[in-house]
Amino acid sequence: MPSNPFPSSACLCSHFLSFKYLFFLFSSLPRSSDTAKTKKERKMNLKSISLTFLVSILAILVSKHFMSSTPNNNPQIISLKYLIDVCLTTFSSPIISSLISLKFISRHHHHHHKKKPDGGKNVSICDDFPPNFPPPDTDTTSILCVDRNGCCNFTTVQAAVDAVSNSSQKRNIIWINVGIYYEKVIVPIIKPNITFQGQGFTSTAIVWNDTANSSHGTFYSGSVQVFSDNFIAKNISFMNVAPIPGPGYMGAQAVAIRIAGDQAAFWGCGFFGAQDTLHDDKGRHYFKQCYIQGSIDFIFGNARSLYEDCQVVSMANPVAAGSKSIDGSVTAHGRTSKDENTGFVFVNCTVGGTGRVWLGRAWRPFSRVVFASTTMSDIIAPEGWNDFNDPTRDQSIFYGEYNCTGPGANMSKRAPYVQRLNDTQAAPFLNLSFIDGDQWLQPFL
Q1: Which of 164, 175, 189, 362: CA 20 to 30 A from 153?
Q2: Which of 276, 281, 297, 387 is catalytic?
Q3: What residues form the catalytic site here (predicted)?
Q4: Quick check: is 259 in a domain?
Q5: What pTM, to 2 d.p., does this model score?
Q6: In a domain, 214, yes or no
């Protein structure tokens, strides 16, 4: 994706941490280009600053007021109720407050043994782990367990992925316990039928911080990269916490997840980043009740995907009253030919957050995106869309809206190439048939 073309405020997190200190913190995180020795040194630094690191993420978002969203009730964060209430009052993005609470909790559980309150003998923190878990394999399913405290088979997600047999026809469920997993994860094409099963998108996250610069290209910057078919993710978040790019900064694109396999499904997942958060690269994909956050082109690629009941949240910089400047875009679809059956469709979603943004811009000449029965806040620019400043694309792009509501859904000033779809025109986009879901999509169990 292109570098950041939008203007930016210069006052991010000035009340908490300077950019110099933030970049120091982020530089302590390992990168894929590091030598083995450097990675080891960075990881040691990471352990000592992990709490401060999370606070720095919070600081980055000080001037960002996301669309209100209440996190799932989680008994593990009640002991930090005051802190979480403060966080939720200031920042309505639920992942940040929950991850901070998890970091506090993990500090209490850092060692594998602890004293009983009555002064009794040491007991393992794993004593509370479900007995006889994971269960034995069946003819159709295998379960691999990941817990960063060492309470089951694997302590990293990548190790569990590596343990899955190549070309396995079983459904391989990688059950990932509550926690923040600082690692870059790749699911290769030879490992289909894998499920990532988290414990809630506000309590389980895979986090990394590569950028286009550090990984030799935007396409390789994803914290998680999925190349295999039939991938499923449930109740887990994918985050890229690279520093938010300034205006005109080159090579700062930072992908949270890249999905390049066919027939992938995401249920109740979170996607967190800034520029190019969700690389919906290629294949047929389904997103249900997901939370997607970013600023510039934060859902991009050339997949054929259906997003249902999702929260789409811009964290672009707020704009001054009366300003007509644009500082973000939700989608950037990459269809290159009219013969490609690809596109992004959003049904029964909400679009909100901060900034003034387009619903999409035409990354490629035949870009195709539809919003249907979606509620849009006033962050949407009146023109709604952008042809990538290339009027020759106006005849080939397909941008449609159908039965949308909210102040951002007013189509009276939309760009002339935007289509107000009628019932007949909208019908092919409104259900699972758009992605051939009846042929492959499994019900949520």
Answers
A1: 189
A2: 297
A3: 297
A4: no
A5: 0.80
A6: no
